[in-house]
Amino acid sequence: MDIYAQLALSGLFIGGLYALISVGLTLVFGVLRVVNFAHGEYLTIAMFLTYFLFHQFGFDPFLSSILVIPLMFGLGLVTERLLIRPTLEAPHVVQVFVTFALSLWLQNLLLVLFTSDFRTVRTGYATAAFQIGPLYVSWLRLGAFVAAVALTAALAAFLKYTYMGSAIRATAQDRRSARLTGVNVDRVYAVTFALGCALVGAAGVLLSPLFPVNPYTGADMILIAFVIVVLGGMGSIAGATLAGLLIGVVESYSSYFLGGEMKQFVYFLCFMLILAFRPVGFFGRKGAEVMDVT
Amino acid sequence: MAVVSAVFSHQRGRQLKILHRGFSRRRAAELFVAAAFGGFLTGPAASQETVKIGAIFPLTGASSVFGNQNFQGVDIAVDLINHRGGVNGRKIILFKGDGNSPQSAISETNRLATREGVTIFVGSSTSAAGMVASQEAERNGAFYWEGMAVANTYTERGFKHAFRMGLNAAGLGQPAPLYAAEVLAPLLKIEPKDLKIAVIAEDSAFGVDVSKAAIEQAEKLGMKVGFRELYSAKTTDLSPLVLKLRSFAPDIIIATQFINDAILLQRQMKEMSYFPKAFVGTSAGHSTLSFAEAIGKDVNGIFSSSFPLEANPASISETARGDLEEFVKRYRAKYNVIPAVQESLGFVVGMGLIRDVIGKSASLGAADLREAALKADVPTGSYINGWGMKFDEKGQNQRAFGSVVQWQDLRMVPVYPKASKLKEPIMVPLPAWTAR
After folding, report:
1. According to the model, what pLDDT value does residue A197 have?
2. What stretches of A33-135 show up as alpha helix (H) in DSSP?
3. Considering only the top CATH level, what class is B38-167+318-375?
4. In whole angstroms, what is the distance from residue B219 CA to residue B209 CA?
5. CA B145 remoteness from chain centre
6. Which of A152, B129, B177, B241 has CA atoms 20 to 30 A from the CA of A203?
7. Burial per residue of B230-259, b for 16 or more beta-carbon CB atoms within 10 angstroms, e otherwise
8. What are B160-197's pLDDT values in tens digits?
9. Which residues have a Cβ under 8 Å from the Cβ of A287 and sit 6 or more positions away?
10. Are A263 and B235 spatial neighbours (Cβ–Cβ below 8 Å)?
11. Which of the 8 DSSP states describes residue A22?
12. Does the predicted TM-score (pTM) go above 0.90?
């Protein structure tokens, strides 16, 4: 019984981080209808920024989030203006190529700047843990999980209760009607893309004390984010959160009972089965994947 | 990379212009004939010529950490030999080829062979690149010198011109169980056959082959491996593995891991306050500086069996001691870090190829290089890591050996075998995490 609880806990902790990586991706897709293949590289950049602030100025990762998240937001604004906006009306393949090229370009840029060595943010509390009964709980993983859930909840609240949030949701539903009702759609796009980057930036900050970073770290993690986005229903934040947690737990149980190398086998099997019965994912809308006509 | 090739092509352009200006047609024709026959020339004309070596390493992508470290080691060997006047008066030019995937290893080998006229290759850090690059080299009639890729099948394909100076998977996997039986068992006061051993490995060909070799060696020594688990090196959570290890409760864990998963496992074992009596890594992550940087003093007490880090100075020749000094000095000056295992391996592999094979070969043709390699009889202790060179007919170096280091005071200290040993092992059995 203890083992089951410990596995569930480990799975939920990592799943919370998966969810945070994925909500930015699904948000950008839901509103801009752009699949951002460079999402993983923004994660890497945030981890390198955290590493840099830690080593140059001794900033604790949680403290440096105050700087890193706005920086990532700014980087998102710049990317949207320079690369995404000019290609929004272009065919889908062009958008795919643009973000894919950006992904490779950023990987190579980071490679030139930092080489491919692994860098670590080693805090004093990196492996601090406490015990509740038979369960071992890592402070850092717990903290990262709580922060990830809180940020996802804050995003949901922002979308629900603010003007900008309503404008984003309106644009996601129908960009032409949104424009007709006076929503500045270009601004919505910019803010949404930047929000996506800021969220993955937050995930990067939270991951950096847990995992070493090199220019390919984000690319390694992004496959799972795509699975989560599709499973949750493309564009659905609640769906991505649920799918993130689910995949975390499935991974944890499968690697214990079937072996570590069976992890991907099992979660892709779940993925296919769920999509076979529910092609739009948990909370997806039919037709969400089709670019709407403006 | 583009910059490097631009520089090379610029240099070539300049050489051609000089040829046009300074030489008569007849002299050019003589040179052409000489080049066509490919023999070594003596005299002033020869000293102008160069030996081209193509280096196929993963310089970008997932394996690029080791790829760059290996390449840079080779690069320093080239620098040093050029500084000493080259081989037989010829300077060496090293061409970079990025073998970040099997496809690119193939295309880069072909590019260097056909466009740059490279006939000698060195590589490859990963078996994925080395296996196919050597095949392309063989097809092009070129000579392939492997240093790091460990796939056992590399030398089993009947290739005439593919040699391996470094270890195969068996050579890399064997020292850990040997060390467990000879040294750790007495220190733990357990008979080798009663040791409980767990073998864990990342699930690429590297981890699978090396861990298999470790298990076979352990069984040969009468030890039973009661637990074996594979996992993907890209994993984000190893706590299920830690739970399993805790319930199996091995005396010794033998682990084949890359860097990030090696770090993750140690951290998660500590989070769950679990540790075995001894932990022996079998490369590649455990003997990198990033590993120690990431987990700090928790690294102390961990063993890593790998390519040798450095030899005991008493067991290497005077020339090798001089090379070692030059290597460390030049590496630090050029790359601004202290070289570790993979860098020194690159250097050894470069020295072996250039000084002891190309330097002794009648020509740069693959057949002559093969003959020179088979003839080579370099005693153990001639290279900075203690190795020597003597090939079997299949092209596997018989004087390469693995060694075991232990992290002591945040530094890797050679503890096995005798030729490498600098200090006695400490912390056996491993003390609690807080006491390291």
Report:
1. 96
2. 39-57, 61-79, 85-87, 92-114
3. alpha beta
4. 15
5. 11
6. B241
7. bbbbbbbbbbbbbbbbbeeebbbbbbbbbb
8. 999 999 999 888 899 999 999 999 999 999 999 999 99
9. none
10. yes
11. H
12. no
User: Could you tell me if B81 and B355 are in contact, meaning their C-beta atoms sit under 8 angstroms apart?
Assistant: yes
Interface list for B 188-247 with A (CB within 8 A) = 203, 229-232, 234-241, 243-244
| A11 in B contact zone (CB under 8 Å) | yes
- Per-domain residue ranges for chain A? 19-116+143-277
Distance to chain A for B293, nearest Cα, Å: 7
CATH 3.40.50.2300 residue spans of chain B: 38-167+318-375, 171-306+403-435
Angle (nearest 5°) at CA B179 between B174 and B180? 105
- For residues B12 and B98, what is the distance between their CA atoms, to the nearest angstrom? 21
**ipTM surpasses cut 0.85:** yes
Tell me the pLDDT of chain A averaged across its residues: 90
Could you count the other beta carbons within 10 Å of the beta carbon of residue B409?
9
C-beta separation of A61 from A121 below 8 A: yes
Q: What are phi and psi of B159, to 5 degrees?
A: -75, 140
Residue from A10, A119, A245 to probe the interface with B (highest B Cβ count within 10 Å): A10
Q: Facing residues of B254 across strands?
A: B199, B280
Q: How far is B20 from chain A (nearest CA, A)?
A: 38
Per residue in A104-142, pLDDT (tens digit) is 999 999 988 888 888 999 888 888 889 888 889 999 899
Token match 């369960």: residue?
Answer: A135
Judged by phi (left if over 0) then psi (alpha if -120 to 50, else beta), residue B387 lies in beta
A255: enclosing H helix or E strand: helix A237-257
Q: Does A227 touch chain B (CB under 8 A)?
A: no
d(CA A228, CA B161): 49
Query: Which residues on chain B are in Cβ contact (under 8 Å) with A103?
Result: none
pLDDT tens digits for range B259-286? 999 999 999 999 998 999 999 999 788 9
The strand pair at B252-257 and A135-138 is best described as: unpaired
Closest partner residue to B263 (CB to CB) among A212, A252, A260 is A212
What is the fold, at CATH topology level, of the domain defined by B171-306+403-435?
A: Rossmann fold (3.40.50)
For residue B14, give both structure tokens. Answer: 């300049």
